[in-house]
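Supplementary material to the annual report.
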Amino acid sequence: MEAPAILKETALTIRVGCEIAYEFGGPTPAVFLVRPDASPRQRLISETWTTLPGAPYHDYTDLFGNTCRRMLLPQGPVTFRYDALVETPPEPEPVDWNAAQHLVQDLPDDVLVYTLPSRYCLSDELAPRAMELFGTAPLGRGCVQTICDWVHDNITFCADASTPLTTAAHVLASGQGVCRDYAHLAITFCRAMNIPARYVFGYIPDIDVPPPLTPMDFCAWFEAFLGGQWWTFDPRNNQTRKGRVRIAIGRDALDVAMVTTYGAAQLNRMTVWADEVPNGGTPAR
Amino acid sequence: MEAPAILKETALTIRVGCEIAYEFGGPTPAVFLVRPDASPRQRLISETWTTLPGAPYHDYTDLFGNTCRRMLLPQGPVTFRYDALVETPPEPEPVDWNAAQHLVQDLPDDVLVYTLPSRYCLSDELAPRAMELFGTAPLGRGCVQTICDWVHDNITFCADASTPLTTAAHVLASGQGVCRDYAHLAITFCRAMNIPARYVFGYIPDIDVPPPLTPMDFCAWFEAFLGGQWWTFDPRNNQTRKGRVRIAIGRDALDVAMVTTYGAAQLNRMTVWADEVPNGGTPAR
Amino acid sequence: MEAPAILKETALTIRVGCEIAYEFGGPTPAVFLVRPDASPRQRLISETWTTLPGAPYHDYTDLFGNTCRRMLLPQGPVTFRYDALVETPPEPEPVDWNAAQHLVQDLPDDVLVYTLPSRYCLSDELAPRAMELFGTAPLGRGCVQTICDWVHDNITFCADASTPLTTAAHVLASGQGVCRDYAHLAITFCRAMNIPARYVFGYIPDIDVPPPLTPMDFCAWFEAFLGGQWWTFDPRNNQTRKGRVRIAIGRDALDVAMVTTYGAAQLNRMTVWADEVPNGGTPAR
Amino acid sequence: MEAPAILKETALTIRVGCEIAYEFGGPTPAVFLVRPDASPRQRLISETWTTLPGAPYHDYTDLFGNTCRRMLLPQGPVTFRYDALVETPPEPEPVDWNAAQHLVQDLPDDVLVYTLPSRYCLSDELAPRAMELFGTAPLGRGCVQTICDWVHDNITFCADASTPLTTAAHVLASGQGVCRDYAHLAITFCRAMNIPARYVFGYIPDIDVPPPLTPMDFCAWFEAFLGGQWWTFDPRNNQTRKGRVRIAIGRDALDVAMVTTYGAAQLNRMTVWADEVPNGGTPAR
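Predicted assembly:
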């Protein structure tokens, strides 16, 4: 998959970031995944990391290639803040209706892991249901779109529906979920149909769409491997979007938690932003 | 962790391998994990791979560092066979009763993933039960041994207890399982106590122990990270063993399936061997 | 770059391998790179590794992704033998005359290292000469082909020309070399022109060409990165070839020595083979 | 190798960074290696990256595990600035006079590459000289220290001695060099004696030593693998130092250029800093 150059002249500039306020009972190890990744559809222009009070950190690359920031946060109140400017192409992610499904034997080695079940995407358990629903769907892009349509139409958005233990099987049973649940269920169905699918987590600004009723948050969607490359699908919105900014990829939400803290942590406040910046300027925040 | 040299003069020679007979309805992609890995406690002397009829293959390294053989098996009856001679040290795996538990902030980056829940090891879900059972256990080696003792004593071996959907939570609830279930439950408890634990899969010969009632099979055990290195634990046998041969490591059994086939496969016969070879010779097989 | 499937019906079957006889003054660590790699243009059907007397080994993956076999060979006479059957497509490697040159900023991250000088390919030192010779050549495929033509026409094959210290600068100065020297000089010129180029090492059977005067040996050629993928070039033969089998890639010959031994070794005999096997059968050897 | 915790109470705080002013004739791809790495002997507290005018960038990990920042710098004058606070232990790097030399067969796989010659460290070419000078030195730590002493005593520091083409062989012949040349020559001798050695590049503040006559710059030293871990050696200074901050590792200076630019670049000014910050405060700069 070759990346098209993002031209300065036409690029959208998106401001993304988050601020999280904690109260810790003791020194607390934490891992943050908040930074736009090196996807060819986006490029960083500037970023600022702030922790108050200051805390030691280093970055490392996890199994899936994501850059994680590992910190040791001090006891007491701690505010973590990440703020960045990112350029993206002016148009939404591309769609190729003819992107073909691969035979499993033709998949690249590093894609194979995304055909297997994972913590939240129990494609083994849901295989019979997937065959029932999508066994007669067209192969390739058509199958993935049919899955997205089904998930979009049959799951009701419900902000409280999901806990850290909610699997795709629960989502299917309850018919409710948040964006990560939509993604988990669609991924599960894709894998059950032998289409590699991976979980994606990032920022989405509301450009040329009405702002959602629920305040902005980190979002989850997924990618399917068709015709030799990964394609973006978003069963929650079920539409292409401008200015999508990817943070990390994994098998499911377990692999790409935004924040992992060890030990007791009290989360007092969390704000996330993803806004278009007209003329590449820097709005006050 | 430094590997002690395995001396030719005192090494045990173990013959390991397997033969699997299938009937496939069509060309079938498959991934095999049957080869002893590059653990410093073992070294390959010779090996033979045979597939009848012949089939194309290549090797690749998965996310966890395991070398997988990927094949495209033909339609009809197929026999796959792997046979190897391996040297191991003459004594069982070492035990250090003083191996200390790390603070999470002191764990190496690549160990961190083994503190998280995974498909079969739902350490988030079982955390309350782990705290209840092991919250007052000593830290470090003592905690892991207490966990192994508990799992060994409270789970009953039952060859039919486990399906591809059986998690550690099911094992705890039913009180029954096979070696992989023992490993999953102990790993889950370790992670819930913030001790990194990973699943191991391999061959174990019966040296200086009575042969088991159930015929020999691939075995599962686990490793815990203490005092700066990984240590072997085996809650099924709950004893150290000579001649243990590691094949692969992962977060749980999902990551290290011995064989993954895509599509309908009929398994007709499977034999596994792991035998000491006196004087390093080659017994007829 | 998507790999075309190699069809059983039309594939060429190539037998490749080598036999090397040594005499060692003591236990000798060695690393072998003799196995066809996982290139999508070839697939292994069977292989046999033999060492007489037997010796412990394991495989590992080097920095460049090559699978190396690491052995500890015993004192005295040792014979090492590798023999394999490989399938390749029936036609020579593809040529795209329009494959475009990338701007450096558009190269994938993992390709960037192949724009830099290396032990034998001193592209910094030869940059002025490259500009002089190829500064007016067309960009992209045309430039690489112009370089290959120049190297092919200006270097004389000479079996004794090369030592382990011979760099591309020496080759240019002397006007003589073996296949690896041709590859080194062409790689050096490509890098000096900001075209990523990497060294390749493998087997080439003589199919539809007259057998060479010099007996068959391991061969070296190179790959250039153009239009989003790596393309094969062979300045020694300066023609496409059927049945080419890749063993390893690297920055230059230093990274992909066929055999590396540590300590004093006496090489008594070495034979290499790469022959088409009609009808996929197995000729006596 | 286990990392000792760096305690907040006793840590040294070091301010490191650089500012570089360029004039570019066109858009210029560049790769920067200026950030302290994840070595267990140091930890980042804060950092600021500034490019004027702004320019897109992303980070990637190179073959040696270093995190590189890849940028596309605009035409015209460009100022790049990196500034960070780092904590290090209060004592100099440790020394173990008994650290033993490994047999090559006992070296970890990923260390093996550091036994081979590289672009500037032609250990094959200098092997006879190394044997002559150090063939009777003690093994292990003693051998490396003997090499460092010899290089320190026999090479004269000369700020102008080195060009991008200067290898260890040139350094030995001329008897002159800068810190990277000292490191290259010592590395070359170590490898010739079968001791793995790798190039290190970083910042060194002048703590408890007289400031050097030459203004502060990025520094080079090296690490040797003995007794199961990497140890720091500095043949230029030939003394242990407090507050050493590692940026990157590689086979030699080629692998870890501080800045790589493609195309014509005019460097107008470059400043580097590495200063202890009393009480962890932030001095004006």
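Helices of chain A lie at 127-134, 141-154, 168-174, 179-192.
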